[in-house]
Protein backbone atom coordinates (compact mmCIF):
# COMPACT_ATOMS: atom_id res chain seq x y z
CA UNK A 1 0.00 0.00 0.00
CA UNK A 2 1.55 3.29 -1.11
CA UNK A 3 1.43 6.19 1.24
CA UNK A 4 1.93 9.77 0.14
CA UNK A 5 4.31 11.88 2.11
CA UNK A 6 2.56 14.57 4.11
CA UNK A 7 3.52 17.91 2.51
CA UNK A 8 3.35 19.63 5.89
CA UNK A 9 6.00 17.23 7.23
CA UNK A 10 8.20 17.84 4.18
CA UNK A 11 7.94 21.61 4.55
CA UNK A 12 8.62 21.40 8.28
CA UNK A 13 11.76 19.38 7.62
CA UNK A 14 12.81 21.89 4.95
CA UNK A 15 12.35 24.79 7.38
CA UNK A 16 14.39 22.97 10.02
CA UNK A 17 17.19 22.27 7.55
CA UNK A 18 17.25 25.89 6.42
CA UNK A 19 17.56 27.10 10.01
CA UNK A 20 20.32 24.59 10.73
CA UNK A 21 22.24 25.41 7.54
CA UNK A 22 21.80 29.14 8.10
CA UNK A 23 23.18 28.92 11.64
CA UNK A 24 26.03 26.66 10.52
CA UNK A 25 27.05 28.94 7.65
CA UNK A 26 26.49 32.30 9.30
CA UNK A 27 27.14 31.36 12.95
CA UNK A 28 23.70 32.77 13.80
CA UNK A 29 24.99 36.29 13.08
CA UNK A 30 23.06 36.89 9.86
CA UNK A 31 19.48 36.26 10.88
CA UNK A 32 18.14 38.32 8.00
CA UNK A 33 19.74 35.85 5.54
CA UNK A 34 18.15 32.91 7.32
CA UNK A 35 14.77 34.61 7.48
CA UNK A 36 14.94 35.50 3.78
CA UNK A 37 15.64 31.86 2.90
CA UNK A 38 12.63 30.81 4.98
CA UNK A 39 10.35 33.27 3.21
CA UNK A 40 11.55 32.13 -0.21
CA UNK A 41 11.04 28.50 0.81
CA UNK A 42 7.48 29.35 1.90
CA UNK A 43 6.72 30.78 -1.55
CA UNK A 44 8.17 27.88 -3.55
CA UNK A 45 5.38 25.27 -2.92
CA UNK A 46 2.67 27.51 -4.36
CA UNK A 47 4.67 28.33 -7.47
CA UNK A 48 5.74 24.70 -7.92
CA UNK A 49 2.17 23.43 -7.58
CA UNK A 50 0.94 25.99 -10.06
CA UNK A 51 3.72 25.11 -12.52
CA UNK A 52 2.60 21.46 -12.42
CA UNK A 53 -0.99 22.30 -13.38
CA UNK A 54 -2.16 22.39 -16.96
CA UNK A 55 -2.78 26.08 -17.52
CA UNK A 56 -4.43 27.60 -20.53
CA UNK A 57 -3.41 30.90 -22.01
CA UNK A 58 -6.67 32.53 -20.94
CA UNK A 59 -5.95 31.92 -17.26
CA UNK A 60 -2.38 33.16 -17.62
CA UNK A 61 -3.58 36.34 -19.31
CA UNK A 62 -6.16 36.88 -16.56
CA UNK A 63 -3.48 36.54 -13.86
CA UNK A 64 -1.21 38.95 -15.76
CA UNK A 65 -4.00 41.50 -16.18
CA UNK A 66 -5.16 41.52 -12.55
CA UNK A 67 -1.52 41.70 -11.40
CA UNK A 68 -0.97 44.70 -13.69
CA UNK A 69 -4.09 46.38 -12.27
CA UNK A 70 -2.85 45.81 -8.72
CA UNK A 71 0.58 47.27 -9.60
CA UNK A 72 -1.11 50.24 -11.25
CA UNK A 73 -3.08 50.82 -8.05
CA UNK A 74 0.16 51.08 -6.09
CA UNK A 75 1.79 53.31 -8.70
CA UNK A 76 -1.08 55.80 -8.93
CA UNK A 77 -0.98 56.40 -5.18
CA UNK A 78 2.82 56.41 -4.78
CA UNK A 79 2.75 59.97 -3.35
CA UNK A 80 0.88 58.64 -0.29
CA UNK A 81 2.45 55.20 0.40
CA UNK A 82 0.00 54.26 3.17
CA UNK A 83 -3.00 54.88 0.91
CA UNK A 84 -3.10 52.39 -1.93
CA UNK A 85 -5.74 50.08 -3.45
CA UNK A 86 -3.20 47.38 -4.31
CA UNK A 87 -3.84 45.27 -1.22
CA UNK A 88 -7.60 45.58 -1.72
CA UNK A 89 -7.26 44.33 -5.30
CA UNK A 90 -5.19 41.37 -4.08
CA UNK A 91 -7.88 40.57 -1.49
CA UNK A 92 -10.64 40.74 -4.08
CA UNK A 93 -8.69 38.49 -6.47
CA UNK A 94 -8.30 35.93 -3.70
CA UNK A 95 -12.04 36.01 -2.96
CA UNK A 96 -13.09 35.75 -6.62
CA UNK A 97 -10.36 33.49 -8.05
CA UNK A 98 -9.27 31.29 -5.14
CA UNK A 99 -6.27 30.87 -2.85
CA UNK A 100 -3.63 29.90 -5.40
CA UNK A 101 -4.33 32.77 -7.77
CA UNK A 102 -4.70 35.10 -4.78
CA UNK A 103 -1.21 34.15 -3.63
CA UNK A 104 0.23 34.51 -7.12
CA UNK A 105 -1.33 37.92 -7.69
CA UNK A 106 -0.11 39.13 -4.30
CA UNK A 107 3.46 37.93 -4.65
CA UNK A 108 3.78 38.87 -8.32
CA UNK A 109 2.37 42.34 -7.57
CA UNK A 110 5.10 42.83 -4.96
CA UNK A 111 8.03 41.90 -7.18
CA UNK A 112 6.58 43.64 -10.25
CA UNK A 113 5.78 46.92 -8.49
CA UNK A 114 9.24 46.90 -6.89
CA UNK A 115 10.69 47.19 -10.39
CA UNK A 116 9.34 50.74 -10.16
CA UNK A 117 9.87 51.39 -6.44
CA UNK A 118 13.12 49.47 -5.90
CA UNK A 119 14.08 45.85 -5.40
CA UNK A 120 15.97 44.71 -2.34
CA UNK A 121 16.25 42.01 0.34
CA UNK A 122 12.82 43.15 1.58
CA UNK A 123 11.15 41.98 -1.66
CA UNK A 124 10.74 38.29 -0.66
CA UNK A 125 9.07 39.42 2.58
CA UNK A 126 6.65 41.62 0.66
CA UNK A 127 5.99 38.79 -1.79
CA UNK A 128 5.17 36.42 1.05
CA UNK A 129 3.04 38.86 3.07
CA UNK A 130 0.96 40.12 0.12
CA UNK A 131 0.77 36.57 -1.21
CA UNK A 132 -0.58 35.25 2.10
CA UNK A 133 -3.15 38.06 2.23
CA UNK A 134 -4.48 36.91 -1.15
CA UNK A 135 -4.20 33.24 -0.20
CA UNK A 136 -6.19 33.55 3.03
CA UNK A 137 -8.89 35.59 1.30
CA UNK A 138 -9.33 32.70 -1.12
CA UNK A 139 -9.82 29.97 1.47
CA UNK A 140 -13.32 28.56 0.70
CA UNK A 141 -15.04 29.50 3.96
CA UNK A 142 -13.37 32.92 3.89
CA UNK A 143 -14.60 33.45 0.33
CA UNK A 144 -18.18 32.92 1.47
CA UNK A 145 -17.92 35.18 4.51
CA UNK A 146 -16.06 38.01 2.79
CA UNK A 147 -18.25 37.84 -0.31
CA UNK A 148 -21.48 38.28 1.64
CA UNK A 149 -20.64 40.94 4.21
CA UNK A 150 -19.01 44.32 3.78
CA UNK A 151 -18.37 44.37 7.52
CA UNK A 152 -16.25 41.24 7.37
CA UNK A 153 -14.58 42.49 4.20
CA UNK A 154 -13.62 45.71 5.97
CA UNK A 155 -12.37 43.76 8.99
CA UNK A 156 -10.26 41.57 6.75
CA UNK A 157 -8.81 44.69 5.14
CA UNK A 158 -7.83 45.92 8.60
CA UNK A 159 -6.34 42.51 9.43
CA UNK A 160 -4.37 42.59 6.16
CA UNK A 161 -2.92 45.98 7.06
CA UNK A 162 -1.89 44.79 10.52
CA UNK A 163 -0.44 41.54 9.17
CA UNK A 164 1.61 43.31 6.51
CA UNK A 165 2.93 45.97 8.89
CA UNK A 166 3.73 43.55 11.72
CA UNK A 167 5.42 41.09 9.37
CA UNK A 168 7.52 43.71 7.56
CA UNK A 169 8.65 45.19 10.89
CA UNK A 170 10.19 41.80 11.69
CA UNK A 171 12.34 42.19 8.58
CA UNK A 172 13.21 45.76 9.58
CA UNK A 173 14.49 44.54 12.96
CA UNK A 174 16.65 41.92 11.29
CA UNK A 175 18.02 44.43 8.77
CA UNK A 176 19.03 46.87 11.53
CA UNK A 177 20.25 44.61 14.33
CA UNK A 178 21.01 41.36 12.43
CA UNK A 179 19.12 39.64 15.24
CA UNK A 180 15.61 39.85 16.61
CA UNK A 181 15.03 42.34 19.40
CA UNK A 182 11.65 42.75 21.08
CA UNK A 183 12.61 46.25 22.20
CA UNK A 184 13.40 47.31 18.64
CA UNK A 185 10.32 45.56 17.28
CA UNK A 186 7.93 47.24 19.73
CA UNK A 187 9.58 50.59 19.09
CA UNK A 188 9.06 50.16 15.35
CA UNK A 189 5.43 49.18 15.86
CA UNK A 190 4.80 52.29 17.93
CA UNK A 191 6.51 54.67 15.50
CA UNK A 192 4.59 53.11 12.60
CA UNK A 193 1.16 53.51 14.20
CA UNK A 194 0.05 56.43 11.93
CA UNK A 195 1.19 54.55 8.82
CA UNK A 196 -0.43 51.30 9.96
CA UNK A 197 -3.75 52.97 10.80
CA UNK A 198 -3.82 54.72 7.40
CA UNK A 199 -2.95 51.48 5.62
CA UNK A 200 -5.68 49.54 7.45
CA UNK A 201 -8.23 52.23 6.64
CA UNK A 202 -7.20 52.26 2.97
CA UNK A 203 -7.50 48.46 2.74
CA UNK A 204 -10.97 48.47 4.29
CA UNK A 205 -12.18 51.43 2.21
CA UNK A 206 -10.90 50.25 -1.17
CA UNK A 207 -11.98 46.63 -0.55
CA UNK A 208 -15.58 47.71 0.05
CA UNK A 209 -15.50 50.32 -2.73
CA UNK A 210 -14.09 48.09 -5.47
CA UNK A 211 -15.36 44.64 -4.52
CA UNK A 212 -18.68 44.46 -6.40
CA UNK A 213 -17.35 46.12 -9.55
CA UNK A 214 -14.28 43.86 -9.81
CA UNK A 215 -16.27 40.76 -8.79
CA UNK A 216 -18.82 41.38 -11.55
CA UNK A 217 -16.11 41.88 -14.18
CA UNK A 218 -14.19 38.78 -13.11
CA UNK A 219 -17.31 36.61 -13.08
CA UNK A 220 -18.16 37.73 -16.61
CA UNK A 221 -14.63 36.94 -17.78
CA UNK A 222 -14.63 33.52 -16.08
CA UNK A 223 -17.99 32.66 -17.68
CA UNK A 224 -17.28 34.10 -21.12
CA UNK A 225 -13.89 32.42 -21.55
CA UNK A 226 -14.77 29.27 -19.60
CA UNK A 227 -11.96 29.68 -17.09
CA UNK A 228 -12.27 27.34 -14.12
Automatic annotation (TrEMBL):
Listed Pfam families: ECF_trnsprt (PF12822)
Keywords: Membrane, Transmembrane, Transmembrane helix
Organism domain of life: Bacteria
Organism: Candidatus Enterococcus palustris
GO MF entry, a single one: transmembrane transporter activity
Record-given protein name: ECF transporter S component
Sequence intervals crossing the membrane: 7-25, 31-48, 60-80, 86-111, 149-174, 186-214
Amino acid sequence: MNKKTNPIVVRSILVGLLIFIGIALFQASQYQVISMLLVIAACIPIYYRYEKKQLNIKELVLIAVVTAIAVLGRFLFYMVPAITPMTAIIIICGICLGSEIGFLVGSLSAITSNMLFGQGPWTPFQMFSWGMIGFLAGVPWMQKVLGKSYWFLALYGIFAGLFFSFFMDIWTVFSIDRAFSWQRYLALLLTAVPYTVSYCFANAFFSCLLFRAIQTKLQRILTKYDIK
